[in-house]
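--- STAGE predict ---
source: upstream dedup step, 1 unique chain passed
mode: sequence only
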Amino acid sequence: MTTTRRVLHHAGWFAGFGPFIPLPILLFFPKGSSFFSIFRHLPEIVSLTWIVGFLPALLTGIFMAVLSGNVYRHWFWRLLTGGIAAVVITAICCGTIGAFMPMFFYLIPLLLLSALLSGMSIGLIIPRLPPRVAPHQ
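--- STAGE serialize ---
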């Protein structure tokens, strides 16, 4: 797979699927609300999860696509670099957004935990996900 195809493949999977991986943790995080009230607000929760997590996931996918072959081959190094890259990129994005919206700083620990879980899990399974472009024959 060429570098351009790998960047498109990784960016698509990371940005499209990555923000939704920590969704079960985010759904059951507030202890004071019932299951039906969370289920009633599910469309807002899903859309906000994707809106907040799209840019860090996209940048993490691009970073993982341009890794060298030795780091990319072994599952442990993909897991480690996916988690570290997701946390660092999310921290940078949260810091940038938090400079304009100080209320956003209260969400940083939850977002960093979500980024760690998402980056590690997608980094682990990304080579097994189907490519969107058919190879030349």
